[in-house]
Amino acid sequence: MSKADEGRLIHIAKKRERAKEAIEQRRRKLEEETKNLKSGITTKFTANYDAIEDSLKTSTVGLVTLDEMREKQRDVVEARFCPAINFYRGLLRCLILINMNIFQNFEYTIITAANKARIGVDILRTERAS
Hints:
Elements: H1 3-44, H2 51-59, H3 66-129
């Protein structure tokens, strides 16, 4: 085999390798696109079920007065947001108690330091007097 033939074979092998890489790249790209499409479909066609809204609908079947409807809506809103409101109220109480405790500890430290200073002044006065 001549050197020219060897060169052609090497050139053809490299060309074939580049074609394989291009095909592999296209295959990976298609797989990723199909995966994205599948996830897009699952997010687009999901069902939302709101039990509170459903209970409001079932409790207001038929003719109800406006006042009754508003009362039931208010009850539903309170039922939905009551746990969160109670959580934040409790959190606020905890923060207030913590701040009060810090303030009381600080106040105790100041009073203790003042008492020690007063005792020290009293000792100095008694030493000077004697």
